[in-house]
Amino acid sequence: MDKVQTCRSIPHLCSDIWSEIFQYFAVTDLYSTLKNISSTSDEVLFNGKYRNQLRGLTVDSHTTKLPNELPLDQVISLTIQDGISFDILQKCCCLRSLKLVGQFEWIIPLVTKCSQISMHLEQLSIVTPNIKLLHQLLSCILSFDSLRRLEICADEQEEKIEANNFPLFPSKIEHLILNLCPAITYGSLAYIQPGFINIRYLNISLFRHDRISVNLSNFPYLRSLQLSLLEPPFEEINRLVATMPNLVKLKLYGIVDDENFIYSHKWLHLLESTPSLLRIVMDVSFQETRSIFYNENLHKALHGINLSLICMIDDFDCYSYEERQQRWWQLEGVIRKNYCKTN
């Protein structure tokens, strides 16, 4: 019994277990809090023969010096910020996931250099304050044959995307996230389609002013669509989904102000008109004064398709008669086609 207990203590953990443990920690934690725990753990951490997969390394303007023992050739996940040189990327030869935070003027040359070396990136995430040079950036990114997931986030409200005459060649990217503020229109999406014909998951925004003029059937493998909403009319969602004959799953998040979102028959019609669509995940908010939101029959109909319309104030009964006072409402749930057919 004593022998079993001894084997379970930390100093006696074997190297295989330490290798597994290290997979759950960021690089900076490994070389600060987890070093010198035991001779076995240090052997795994500092001996290159174990080929650890090091995650979560961040290099920014506050990084004065990296640990001398840090094997950059074992780093598989890296975040670097504006101003960091290309040298560190050259040393991360096993890199699989890269996040770049900065201006496009710094990002584009960096991505171009990465594409010219033997780097097998699978995931690329870019955070930038503007998307003026989006088309130029994409023409560089799509040269990565190994890339499967791309995320681009921007927050500039008035920036316009510069036109680009360079064609985009098909990539193998399957997961595309474009959190790009109102500046990217669905016309822009039409331009980039040729480079993303293999995507299976698309996450984009839909704003109040957007009018769908793009045919997403050109994404033949697209199965899952997530929309971040900012007060678009319900009809625009209908119009968008109608161009996606192979869509299986639709996710809707954000803020809406169209009353059509709370009518169950609208969602049933959307499911029926899109035979491939099996599931709609809903989590949207309203700020409303209309009495229809308190209608019991409306709530029963929504419950029939597995949706709940909830007043985001606990004392619902107290406020139910103050119909002209604005309340925040949450419409949430998962509409399943098979569930609707049996109810």
What's the short version?
The chain is 28% helix and 22% strand.
Characterize the structure shown:
InterPro entries: LRR_dom_sf (IPR032675). The protein has 343 residues and is α/β, with parallel strands linked by helices. The protein has a domain at 236-314 and 324-342. The chain has 13 helices and 12 strands. It has a 12-stranded mixed β-sheet. β3, α6 and β4 (123-128) form a beta-alpha-beta unit. α6 (104-115) runs parallel beside α7 (134-141). The radius of gyration is 25 Å and the shape is globular. The termini are far apart. Residues 1-6 have low confidence and may be disordered.
Could you give the topology of this structure?
Layout: H1 2-7, H2 15-22, H3 27-30, H4 39-46, E1 57-59, E2 77-81, H5 87-91, E3 97-101, H6 104-115, E4 123-128, H7 134-141, E5 149-154, E6 175-179, H8 186-192, E7 201-207, E8 224-230, H9 234-242, E9 249-255, H10 264-273, E10 279-288, H11 296-304, E11 307-311, H12 316-319, E12 327-336, H13 337-341
Parallel strand pairs: 1-2, 2-3, 3-4, 4-5, 5-6, 6-7, 7-8, 8-9, 9-10
Antiparallel strand pairs: 10-12, 11-12
Helix pairs in contact: 2-4, 6-7
The Cα radius of gyration reads: 25 Å
Helicity level: 25-40%
Strand content: 15-25%
What is the count of DSSP helices, taking H or I runs of 4+ residues?
A: 13
Taking pLDDT < 50 over at least 5 consecutive residues as the criterion, the unreliable ranges are 1-6
Shape: globular
The secondary-structure class comes to alpha/beta
Total strand segments: 12
Question: H/E series, N to C?
Answer: HHHHEEHEHEHEEHEEHEHEHEHEH
Mean pLDDT: 81
Strand order of the largest sheet: 1-2-3-4-5-6-7-8-9-10-12-11
End-to-end distance: 58 Å
The major β-sheet equals: 12 strands, mixed
